[in-house]
Design a protein that fits this description.
165 residues; alpha+beta; two-stranded antiparallel ribbon; 5 helices; 6 strands; 19% strand; globular
Length: 165
Amino acid sequence: MSREPGGKGAFEAATGDGPPLAGDPEQRSREVRSALDGLRQIRRLTAGRDGAGGAVPAEWERRQPVRAVALALEAGGLAPSAVDAGGARAATGYRVRAGERPATAVVEWLGPPGSGAAGQEATALAECAGVLDRLGWEALLYRGPRGRRFLEVEPATTAPGPAPS
């Protein structure tokens, strides 16, 4: 899992800090579904160890929360943000970055200047939190500098509601 989204090689979930997704959307959708199926298989194989029947993040996800959370959001049908070649924000959507504590991630809703991302963030982050909850993550909403909202995400310790199929 070491390539940029839309490139060639192993699958990499979109974190919102890469280039805009390119290529065939149907192929990307198949790659996301395949990656999520693989993640669910990892959870099934390790289910006896977590005590929650595979409904909470596996050890692999806990070690790589940015990748796991990005996969959950992309599989949930949410759009990632993106940056252009100069590093400027080029698309509105989620951005996942490492949290301050181990096994945590931070989800923000970002977009280019004038995109209206700040006005969308409450609704968009609530949708992100719902997707993450269904896949065994706890997402707490906070306000950061300048009043911008973000989610702090960590693995749930108990099984969530039914996961999407």
